[in-house]
Amino acid sequence: MHYITAGESHGPQLTAIIEGIPAGLHLDVEEINAALASRQGGYGRGNRQQIEHDTVEIVGGVRHQITMGGPVALVVKNRDHGNWGQIMDPVAPATPENSVRRVEKPRPGHADLVGGMKYRHKDLRNVLERSSARETAIRVAVGNVCQQLLNQLGVKLVGYVKQVGPVSAAGNLTTDVDAIRSAISQNDMRVLDQSKVAEIHELIDETKRQGDTLGGLIRVVVEDYPAGIGSYVSYDTKLDGKLAGAVMSMNAMKGVSIGDGFDAATSFGSQVMDAIDWSQDTGWSRLSNHLGGIEGGMSNGMPIVVNAAMKPIPTLYHPLQTVDVNTKKVVKANVERSDTTAIAAASIVIENVVAIELAKALLETFNASNFQRLQADVQRYRNEFKEY
Known about the structure:
This protein has helices spanning 29-39, 48-51, 112-119, 125-131, 136-151, 177-184, 197-209, 239-248, 269-272, 343-365, 371-387; strands spanning 2-6, 13-19, 56-60, 62-63, 66-67, 72-77, 156-164, 167-168, 216-223, 253-258, 276-279, 283-286, 294-295, 298-299, 304-310, 321-323, 330-332. By secondary structure, the chain is α+β, with helices and mostly antiparallel strands. The chain has one domain: Chorismate synthase AroC (Chorismate synthase, AroC fold, 4-Layer Sandwich). Helix 1 (29-39) packs across helix 5, helix 5 crosses helix 10 and helix 8 (239-248) packs antiparallel against helix 10 (343-365). Its EC number is 4.2.3.5.
């Protein structure tokens, strides 16, 4: 399975083509739309979310809610394009009238300057329109298709927020996906510790008043993923490597780890390795899960735990120094409409890019032309591993 996305932040639409989804998978469009709506939530979001009300259109590869085996095509319209129609017109030639709102003062921390240098753009809007995190909307749509596939194979996962700026809201860490979903649904920051919500709101409000931004820490937990997916034989087949690459492909991510992650580096081996157990009823297991469900590049049957660190959003309302790309004069950076923090939304995006990689790995491992055949193969595989 692989996918590609296209579209700009203020262009007509975002588009995705997914190739390799098995025939016979039931897709619920309302589940995709619910995920898109969740991505737009969270305290600290900007005005753009009041304009967009993201919904998906399935325009290929599905008939009567069932995939047909060909590429699945998804579209999410940009409602804000109505305010940018001339400026972002794909076919009209450039004129003085439709070339307004140029970006010539690159924002520190964004793709603006380096992207302009690489692609020879002097109007950096050509960079920011594609490098914008708006693209994550269509990735959430792709990810939810993969989540529906995983769910129908008995795999479930959730992403949530562990920390916002300096405020930790990790609560009691658990790998019970249903319990996590229940807890984070009770607040608008997707955190486990309800007692920290008011403090986080106050932090976000004060940060907004200062014209500043916040990042944070995200955790994704995956339950009931089959053991043995991935491989130790080649660097590019390791499951943790693929997951890390997927997480780092998301805007603003600056760190990723599995299980205890960086904390494991400061511990002794006896405190980090997960002792092995076996029982007639459950088969193989571990007595702990410090390694986050992955050993030697392969899933080991324990819950998979992926952690991500998101930097503060680089668009500041009190902008930093930059240099105009045309005049070379020192100026203040461009100010584009942005969020104070998008950490809650980012947890949903990370959840979905993890789902994409987990689905890809399963579809690479088993016969994936038909979903019912895939289900049977996965169940046989699970039984074989239990009986080993």
